[in-house]
Amino acid sequence: xxxxxxxxxxxxxxxxxxxxxxxxxxxxxxxxxxxxxxxxxxxxxxxxxxxxxxxxxxxxxxxxxxxxxxxxxxxxxxxxxxxxxxxxxxxxxxxxxxxxxxxxxxxxxxxxxxxxxxxxxxxxxxxxxxxxxxxxxxxxxxxxxxxxxxxxxxxxxxxxxxxxxxxxxxxxxxxxxxxxxxxxxxxxxxxxxxxxxxxxxxxxxxxxxxxxxxxxxxxxxxxxxxxxxxxxxxxxxxxxxxxxxxxxxxxxxxxxxxxxxxxxxxxxxxxxxxxxxxxxxxxxxxxxxxxxxxxxxxxxxxxxxxxxxxxxxxxxxxxxxxxxxxxxxxxxxxxxxxxxxxxxxxxxxxxxxxxxxxxxxxxxxxxxxxxxxxxxxxxxxxxxxxxxxxxxxxxxxxxxxxxxxxxxxxxxxxxxxxxxxxxxxxxxxxxxxxxxxxxxxxxxxxxxxxxxxxxxxxxxxxxxxxxxxxxxxxxxxxxxxxxxxxxxxxxxxxxxxxxxxxxxxxxxxxxxxxxxxxxxxxxxxxxxxxxxxxxxxxxxxxxxxxxxxxxxxxxxxxxxxxxxxxxxxxxxxxxxxxxxxxxxxxxxxxxxxxxxxxxxxxxxxxxxxxxxxxxxxxxxxxxxxxxxxxxxxxxxxxxxxxxxxxxxxxxxxxxxxxxxxxxxxxxxxxxxxxxxxxxxxxxxxxxxxxxxxxxxxxxxxxxxxxxxxxxxxxxxxxxxxxxxxxxxxxxxxxxxxxxxxxxxxxxxxxxxxxxxxxxxxxxxxxxxxxxxxxxxxxxxxxxxxxxxxxxxxxxxxxxxxxxxxxxxxxxxxxxxxxxxxxxxxxxxxxxxxxxxxxxxxxxxxxxxxxxxxxxxxxxxxxxxxxxxxxxxxxxxx
Length: 877
Fold this sequence. Notes:
Number of strands: 15
Mean pLDDT: 76
Helix content: 55-70%
Shape: elongated
Number of helices: 35
Largest sheet: 5 strands, antiparallel
Low-confidence stretches: 1-63, 113-119, 528-534, 634-640
């Protein structure tokens, strides 16, 4: 075909003629741009459709009327919001936009180069690339870049609006015309449009698409399938450019580093693309990640766009919900710094190496982190060990369900055990490994890694515990500590709203089931008819207004990265299990942590809170519940619980399994609490029984004076009697004393004795004083709990002969018998239970038996020391 050319004046003349000839009205194309056509032809069918819809509404009565009212309300609200957005946007532009800044704020982002205390840290913060952008995020340097690139920034803002506004207008028009049903009818086309827009806008918006691509509870299947393309199938850049980057970064020819490299990238994502190569020196197969050219410039301009958008959104929130304290600009700042940091592949390599080491230290075997070849990695290229496998999102749902439990364990270990977690766990970064000898799941892409402090980890753990058992009053305290709620919040208002808002979430199933539960909560699920729907809507609206106007909650900016990671992981889990319960599935890991971490005061406090429920006595049901959870006996397929009932009678694991678990390294904290509890129970029981026994013995053993002389002579119990009392060393702590005692018997002979002459009544009062009211209540409660467990009367259980028999067998020492030997009789429930216990003890490993002996020895020795300490009062007399 021949090409024609013409002068500029001729071209202008032709354009004027074309403009005069074009008289047709404009109509909207797919992108919201205008094109010429017959508007009337399109309007007439729409008018007919409107009449038909009105007829349908008349036939369906209240439902149709409600639909028309909803559409009108939506249109009105859209108009108001649009006008406000335009006004706020103008104000933001007039005052200018500052670069995101996190100085002085708590941030989770793991960036070693931001630590100025390290050698050269300050220099790295000030270093810039060839266009003047900082190599490590620096607010002042980015602001300087923005100031000189104002034209480019305004062009990027216009590009953003040119793509986003027509799309959002199209979605709003569909919603006004036909509600959610109309949008759903066009979901495939909308998803394709959104994906193309994100690709055209570049890396920043592709990242958003990646997060949304794993939310089956938020988006329909067509949208998920379309957005999944953004995970690692983004349009690649030219391989020749990638090779140039590799050679420039490493300062040598490609062949000197790699003996071979794939001709095309094996994966292309938002910030980089990956090649498979073989090292020339070692022959190892590696993955070579190469940054997209000009990526840092594009992202820097996008930060301006997003910061400006955040300023507009913040202005709208301050206008329509002034009580809300969330600083959305600060949230954007955190995300912006994290995203900028992802472009520093040297920082990514350090994060990857550190997390690999931490997971190995914690014994996490199901997840594998590839080794980093640091000597071949720079800011723009990253070379790591090659891993073969398939993305988790491409596995079958049943397989995802099994694999996600492994990934969840690893993530909870990162977040709540070591405080260093992967912040971008989308399906492109999680791979089922072909080589299962290294692990089940490979974790990739460590550009965005975050760290949390130990106090923050402890508060998050408490939050999950309180969420799981719907203890919203305690959850308010957690939210205050996390700075989500202010210290002066009105609990009477907050707690009921928390119940309504969070209870549906705890039940699991993601956004769609959450919406269904909310509708059910407010009677808007259709079961109450039209009037019920109206009343429910009014109640929900009132609660929303209460939240907006009376509950000044806020989302801490540092939680931006944590929220992104959790949302992504939950979405992936929902692909394998539509009923996935994030809170309930996390609880077993929490239970294992708090029963194990005896050296962590916060974990011990959390465990005490569960076991005692705010009271003084340990609750047997709660003990069985925490054992169930720690041993993984909850949240199973059959009979999955919506919430955790801490007071339910739910010991689903066997006695032998429970005893073995308590005696393992995994239950050191729980074992310590149980030792304290058994020592207290034994001490109070001995004190009570000893008082009764001594008083009875005094009455029977001491000779009584004749009746005529009883008023003239002192009572036998008041006569001084000789007694040898062990004397404890002064100024020595109990722990040191107990450390020098090998056995309970040794406790009675390990100290020098002092002879005393005291009345028998004084001896009884010193050695076995009467129990206080609180002690009596405790003893009654514990005896009742043990009776329920053993199925026998505690008087029989605590008979001296039974107690000494048990201690003799556990401690491996011969103790003297006390009292007459009971006559032979038919086996009782107690006998059967005791036989079961001895069967369990007999089945213990040697290591478990030794721990049981050591625990029993500590309990009895501490109880004996308590008696001796009370006897010191006799020496003082």
